[in-house]
Amino acid sequence: MKKLLSIFIIIILITGVCLTGCAKKDTGSSKTLSDTAVSDKKEAYAPSYTEEKSSEATADMDNGYNISDYENFEAEESIMDGSETSVGSASIDEKAEMPYKYAGNIAYDGMSSDEYSEVNEVGFKHVNTNPLSTFSIDVDTASYSNLRKTINYGMIPDANAIRIEEMLNYFNYRYEEPEKDEPFRIHTEIGKCPWNEQNYLLMIGLQGRNVETEALPKSNLVFLIDVSGSMDEPDKLPLLKNAFSQLVRSLGENDKISIVVYAGEAGVVLDSVRGNEKELILNAINSLNAGGSTAGAGGINMAYQLAEKNFITDGNNRVILATDGDFNVGPSSMEELEKLIEEKRDSGIFLSVIGFGSGNLKDNRMELLADKGNGNYAYIDSSREAKKVLVDEMAGTLLTIAKDVKIQVEFNPYSVAEYRLIGYENRALQNKDFKDDTVDAGEIGAGHQVTAIYEIVPSDAIGKDGDLKYQTENKNSSQYNNEISEIRLRYKEPDGNVSKEIKQVVSYENTPVNSKKLSEDFYFAAAVAEFGMILRNSIYQGESSISSVLELAQKGMGEDEDGYRLEFIDLVYRYQNLDKISWWE
Fold first, then answer.
1. CA–CA distance, 151 with 573 (Å, rounded to integer)
2. Is 108 helix (H, G, I), strand (E, B) or coil?
3. Within 10 A of 23 (CB to CB), how many other CB atoms are there?
4. Cβ neighbours of residue 131 closer than 8 Å, sequence gap 6 or more
5. CA–CA dist 552, 548 (Å, integer)
């Protein structure tokens, strides 16, 4: 016995030494968005992030309307200059040493059958040959809360789980409200790119019209709940019950609630119960148990039938699907599910998809259902996240103010040589799709925001080719020398079939380039985008570093009333301290 004990102790000691020796640390250099002078001689853009960059810069300025020329060269104070910067009640350095709290008590077993759609990054495009960038908006937030859970469990997220647009859109920004009777307001900012000092970032923000909870129309909600055997985990059905219980407590007597469950087959638990009958609804939710296979398609059909039967004219008719996405009975392939949900899309019933759990998460199926079903996709990893999605943001989650929302940006070759849209890879559209009202696009809820960031390469060139605003034979392009780009937005009313269009020019007058007036939102969004590229190990991450992410995020903290920006900083520190070994390998 003593001999066995001695061997056991030796094994532990050897293991500890090995783990210590394998630990890795991020020693990336600190970067800042401080205003850096740009050389007056612009060379042709050729990305080469492996080459060392010169640290020398000049403050010379060219003549004319070029992005670099409009840069404000007043140096901004760096937050990483050695002075103490507080995060809550502790300094950043102190925060780095604090223990991290886990989102739950579920540990990975080192194996996973999570599934994600492949994300293929899009590179830089030349404005002279590709002046238009067209994409569908996306208000999903699932990617961020999912990667947060993974990092909090001490794991490295799958690269395909990183959708930068969903990371950006998880956070609230201080965009101005639309004018009365207008559904949207467009916000723009331009500043230096923190990971490539020769380039700039164009930030586009879209603010949807807010609707107070008290002013929400009557709701006809069908809770479609997965109670199959795969949901029998603490972070699945039990957390789901907690989440829906919070939603139920926010509903009123004018709302109608139905519950459909599915496992080996689907069944109706409640049919059109008034929202003020809370005890009845809560008892029905809390009595659910998990077991059996997963006939998801059967559940979807039954839920839509119930929603159609109880349809409220001029009301909010919505199916809320809660699942880990593991469909294995009936139609379950991506193609079959896409066909199924597209058949339901024209019924006037919207879809919200809420993901739960890990280790068997079929993120690809849930994203597909939300995208094709006129809906949105969120992931709930905690009771706090449930409150954010289903209570605090209930209006945006439950009430659609516009559908088939598309954005098209035309860049002026006089100002921009090349551009790259960061994220939105799965939302890209053909340029001809922008004015095609038969092409499906994303939906936006009341008060929702959409944020997109372009990395742009400044240019002296003036384009002359193409049937475009900035490149035509009949117009002298120089008349638009003061413009950087034009943003076009098309959308339909929730019950409409014909799109409306909004246009806004990004000029040097309405969007000052790299001035000291850059908002805290700009810095924070840049930090989120940079962190996303690091997580993806993007070939376009340039000189990105954790140090830069932390600096930008701290600079963009602002008031942070809900604490999510501080949580982001904590998450970045958590990631920095992880052993960089993917848990699924």
1. 10
2. coil
3. 10
4. 410, 411, 413, 463, 466, 468, 470, 471
5. 6
Is the separation of the CB atoms in 204 and 451 below 8 Å?
Answer: yes
Do the beta carbons of residue 448 and residue 394 sit within 8 Å? no
- The position carrying tokens 């008719």 is 317
Q: What is the largest CA-CA distance in the chain?
A: 93
Distance (Å) of CA 203 to CA 206, 210, 325, 452, 536: 10, 21, 33, 6, 21
Other C-beta atoms closer than 10 Å to the C-beta of 271 total: 14
Beta bridge partners of 409: 133, 487
In this predicted model, what pLDDT tens digit does every residue of 163-191 receive, in sequence order?
A: 999 999 999 999 999 987 888 999 999 99
Query: CA–CA distance from 230 to each of 44, 108, 236, 261 (Å)?
Result: 54, 15, 9, 14
Structure tokens at 18: 């090995």
Average pLDDT, the chain: 80
DSSP class per residue in 6-71 = HHHHHHHHHHHHHHHHH-----PPP---------SSPPPP---TTSPPP--------SSS-TGGG-
Q: Rounded distance, CA 136 to CA 374, Å? A: 12
CB 70 within 8 A of CB 513: yes
Sign of the C-alpha dihedral, residues 579, 582, 584, 585?
Answer: negative
Q: What does the block give as tokens for 376?
A: 């949105």
d(CA 340, CA 433): 23
> Higher confidence at residue 373 or residue 525?
525
pLDDT at 459: 83
Q: What is the pLDDT of residues 308-365, one digit of tens each?
A: 999 999 888 999 999 998 876 566 677 877 888 888 877 889 889 999 998 889 999 8
Q: What phi, psi does 204 have (nearest 5°)? A: -115, 125
Tokens coding 448: 């929702």
The partner residues of 322 in beta bridges, in order of sequence, read 225, 354
pLDDT digit string (tens) for 379-404?
Answer: 999 999 999 999 998 888 778 899 99
What are phi and psi for residue 268, nearest 5 degrees?
-95, 125
Neighbours of 78 (CB within 10 A): 15
Contact 330, 295 (CB under 8 A): yes
Question: Is the CB of residue 375 less than 8 Å from the CB of residue 342?
Answer: no
CA atoms lying within 13 Å on the CB side of residue 565:
25
pTM: 0.79
Residues in the chain: 585
Cβ–Cβ under 8 Å, residues 357 and 233: yes
